[in-house]
Amino acid sequence: MIDARIDIRIATPDDAGLLADLGSRTFGDAFGQQNAESDMKAYLASAFGERIQAEEIADERSVFLVAEVAGETTGYARLRRSDAPPAIPGQRPIEIVRFYSEQAWIGRGVGPALMAKCLELAASMGGDVVWLSTWDRNARALAFYEKWGFMRVGGQQFHVGDDVQSDHLLARAVD
Ligand SMILES: CC(C)(COP(=O)(O)OP(=O)(O)OC[C@H]1O[C@@H](n2cnc3c(N)ncnc32)[C@H](O)[C@@H]1OP(=O)(O)O)[C@@H](O)C(=O)NCCC(=O)NCCS
């Protein structure tokens, strides 16, 4: 159910701190309960921090989207023009590197608003295929991506600390 107007904006260098906090918190909320604390700590420290997100924002191949409702941050996504694993079809791949709604906003339209903008942006970035990697235990996200036309094209490993997990590789054409 969409119960509020969701605005999507492109992040600026001033958002590095916000994205570091948001990234760490939403990853922890989504996967903390299913992972050992030491693995989560190690992953969060390696992936999130103001300096890390500042570098990612500065990367010209990369775009962060921030979702807001009445000025409150409700989610974010990161797109990147990237080399893709061989399983990904297409010539000009765009990766959805991160895709997260704040817990309180799950099921309330933030995911759909972010995905619509990701697909629009992927087209304007010249991509012909959008792809991503998601944990094989992440049933809700897998259902969401399927709804948005993504198909499973393969798999790959994902490391959370010392834990080696199995991800699905999903892809869909850019309209
Ligand atoms: C991925 C995410 C942004 C999608 O947003 P959302 O608000 O959940 O999106 P929607 O509610 O439109 O779609 C989720 C679908 O999964 C279904 N679903 C809910 N719980 C489910 C479950 N346990 N198993 C399978 N499907 C489930 C919902 O019913 C819904 O489908 P429907 O519209 O047909 O009812 C959001 O779930 C999220 O932030 N999850 C945590 C972070 C995450 O996993 N990110 C992806 C990392 S790759």
Question: Keywords for this structure?
Answer:
175 residues; alpha+beta; Aminopeptidase; seven-stranded mixed beta sheet; 5 helices; globular; binds coenzyme A
CATH topology: Aminopeptidase
* Whole-angstrom Rg: 15 Å
Q: Give the low-confidence spans.
A: none
- Give the proportion of residues in helices: 25-40%
Number of helices: 5
Short description:
This protein is of the alpha+beta class and 175 residues long. It has helices spanning 16-31, 37-47, 50-58, 110-124, 139-147; strands at 7-10, 62-69, 72-81, 93-101, 129-135, 151-160, 163-173. A 7-stranded mixed sheet has the order 1-2-3-4-5-7-6, sandwiched between helices.
Could you explain the architecture of this structure?
The protein is α+β, with helices and mostly antiparallel strands and 175 residues long. It has one domain: Gcn5-related N-acetyltransferase (GNAT) (Aminopeptidase). Helix content is 34%, strand content 34%. The protein contains five helices and seven strands, in the order E-H-H-H-E-E-E-H-E-H-E-E. It has helices at 16-31, 37-47, 50-58, 110-124, 139-147; strands at residues 7-10, 62-69, 72-81, 93-101, 129-135, 151-160, 163-173. The protein has a seven-stranded mixed beta sheet with strand order 1-2-3-4-5-7-6, with helices on both faces. Strand 4, helix 4 and strand 5 (129-135) form a beta-alpha-beta unit. Helix 1 (16-31) packs across helix 3 (50-58). It is globular, with a radius of gyration of 15 Å. The model has no long low-confidence stretch (mean pLDDT 96). The structure holds coenzyme A.
